[in-house]
Amino acid sequence: MIREKRLEKSWSQLELAERSGVPQSSISQIERGSRKYPTYENIKKIAKALDIKLEELEEPAD
User: Fold this and answer.
1) Are 3 and 57 in contact (CB under 8 A)?
2) What's the rounded Cα separation, in Å, for the pair 34 and 8?
3) pLDDT at residue 59, rounded to an integer
4) pLDDT (tens digit per residue) in 20-51
5) Overall average pLDDT of the 6-24 stretch
């Protein structure tokens, strides 16, 4: 979900990292699914940067 929302804005992972304050490496791991349980703070920051509700990121992917 994060990757899709990021790409809708035509942002790189680095741009999202700069806008959210979350390290690019963490964003990459979250998008790949290798970080199964990202911190609530990081998810909150990413949602704010993407201008979406936190609940949108909690919905399971189809």
Assistant:
1) no
2) 22
3) 57
4) 999 999 999 999 988 778 899 999 999 999 99
5) 97
User: Smallest Cα–Cα separation from 41: which of 24, 54, 59?
Assistant: 54
Reduce the secondary structure of 1-49 to three states and give it as a string.
CHHHHHHHCCCCHHHHHHHHCCCHHHHHHHHHCCCCCCCHHHHHHHHHH
Cβ neighbours of residue 25 under 8 Å, at least 6 residues apart? none
52 torsion bin: left (phi>0), alpha (psi -120 to 50), beta (else): beta
CA 9, CA 50: separation in Å to the nearest integer? Answer: 8
Asked if 35 contacts 7 with a C-beta cutoff of 8 angstroms, the reply is: no
Task: Collapse the DSSP code of 60 into the 3-class scheme (helix H, G, I; strand E, B; otherwise coil) and give the result.
Answer: coil
